[in-house]
Amino acid sequence: MGPLAKVRWISIKNYKGIENVELELPGPRMKDDPDVMVIGSQNGLGKTSILECCSLLLSTLVTRPRQWEFRTTGPRPLPIHLPDLLVRAGADQLKLDGELWLVTEKEQKKLRVSSHLTRRGDVKIDVKINGERLRDARKEFDATGERESIGEELISVISGLSADPMVTDSFLLFHSYRKAQEGNPELGPNLG
């Protein structure tokens, strides 16, 4: 099994309904405490958007850069201009910055991830590990090359083009617990 990736800090600017938010997601305080974060608030305040942004940052570790290109022409063009669904109304670009930790049994490595998307669809992703720029974060996180690349599927799920939960070997994203149980009965027992 490869390293575990953990989001420890995230800054979100101009994502869907979020103008600007910065969150620290601390790890456990005691050695045997579970590494769990609970986010709660009233409906419509951005909890799901925050989780989507965490997913986008984590996905840079298993996604090839070309999968972030938004297809508007070609054999299977997308039916809508996706940046319009992701970039906050009135803004020119969305900016996600985060600090991730890659954790193995032997060590922890600190990654700094920046992901920017313009309304035109231009994407810039920058990943630094211990301060040095990585050309391919996938190699650091997925040394065996066996993890699934999830860029297109993730964008499809968070933009609403797919209502299905996203289940891969390294990633789970459920927009709705109820939909996951009703639409995919085989997942029900795995959800509790």
TrEMBL record:
<protein>
    <recommendedName>
        <fullName>Rad50/SbcC-type AAA domain-containing protein</fullName>
    </recommendedName>
</protein>
<dbReference type="InterPro" id="IPR038729">
    <property type="entry name" value="Rad50/SbcC_AAA"/>
</dbReference>
<dbReference type="Pfam" id="PF13476">
    <property type="entry name" value="AAA_23"/>
</dbReference>
<feature type="domain" description="Rad50/SbcC-type AAA">
    <location>
        <begin position="10"/>
        <end position="60"/>
    </location>
</feature>
<dbReference type="GO" id="GO:0016887">
    <property type="term" value="F:ATP hydrolysis activity"/>
</dbReference>
<dbReference type="InterPro" id="IPR027417">
    <property type="entry name" value="P-loop_NTPase"/>
</dbReference>
<dbReference type="GO" id="GO:0006302">
    <property type="term" value="P:double-strand break repair"/>
</dbReference>
